[in-house]
Here is the input.
Amino acid sequence: MLNFDFYNPTHIVFGKDRMSELDSLVPKNSNILITYGGGSVNKFGTLDKVLANLPDRKIFQFGGIEPNPQYLTLMKAVEIVKNEDIDFILAVGGGSVMDGSKFIALASCYSGNALNLLNPDSPLAPVDCAIPMGTIVTLPATGSEMNNGAVISHNETKVPIFSIHTFPKFSILDPTLTFTLPKTQVANGIIDTFIHTVEQYVTYPVNAGFQDRTAEGILQTLIEVSDTTLNNPEDYDARANLVWCSTMALNGLIGSGVPQDWTTHMIGHEITALFGIDHAKTLAILQPAIWKVRKEKKKAKLLQYAARVWNITDGTDDEKIDLAIKTTSDFFESLGVSTKLSAYGLNEKNIDSIIASLAKNNRTALSETKDLTLDICREILIKAL
Ligand code: NZQ
Ligand code: ZN
Here is the structure.
């Protein structure tokens, strides 16, 4: 196992009917900015429930944070935080609202040009404080509710940003708040969680038994609940399992002490930034193609994945790995998500612009061994056509 630090201060408040606890979680007599997205929280009554449980505070609202939150939108909220002396931000929504709120929290404490916080070469934000924040999660997918990362979009680029100051103070995870999600967003959540897990697991072995077994547990749970939670959204137990898997897949736990390979996310971010394809849908396209191209490098872990996650134990090593990759693609397709670029109208010509973006953002040495070059990215993208 590799050396590691594990630090995670977020208080998780999990389960039904916990909204009344907001009053004790959010500082009293404070100025609160409630942030949200394009209106689902109005439509489905979540915002009303939040407001009803926050007496004795001065409340401001900022809606309109879009999927793949945009820098220019978020800077409007930074103005409100500064002008109204906001001392707590409450994000109500999915990954985009939570991420956007982390950026608002950081940029509000930064005296320089906030664009400096978006640096693809140096994701660690040069800021020594942030407005404290909490989240109320309406979409299980990103893990943003229990990590300190955010992904912000600007000028056709998605930039990851991290800070020790952006762990939410608390996150309310009430699975019933996610019942209103359209099927396609539930599928996105399953896939994003699946890929977060494999990017910290399908690398090379370092004898990290706990991390491997936990990753396998998350993957198997996703496989077990996927059909039910997709087709019977109000099945509480299935959805509760998805919600908790999403949080645990990207809160630092399974990534501690193991190599990590974020190639899928790095290439996926460029595809979303250029063509607007949902984050998780880019991952479903790329992961099988990446494994096909990196089969030899990842052989030991792919065989472990085949055996322990999909119970594939017959045949030669090559046959087992090929079947595991095919079974993974079939799983994503079974959720109604395509695993091909061409399904979104992209062709070989578009690959040039993806490669150019990767080069512009210095994503030229990806993977757990930093030897995944732009030429290999091209090979992957051609396989994904
Ligand atoms: O905007 P509203 O109207 O709220 O609608 C949203 C949005 O259109 C809707 N939605 C959310 N909760 C709902 C709902 N609709 C009905 N009922 C509900 N309960 O869903 C749509 C998508 O929301 P979004 O927040 O964009 O999705 P997701 O949670 O998948 O977040 C994606 C963003 O997270 C970033 C991605 O890059 C992308 O920008 N990521 C953040 C990570 C992190 N912080 O650690 C890691 C991830 O890998 C990812 O990169
Ligand atoms: Zn993701």
About this structure: The chain has 14 helices and eight strands. Residues 209-231 form the longest helix (23 residues). The chain has two domains: 11-177, 183-383.
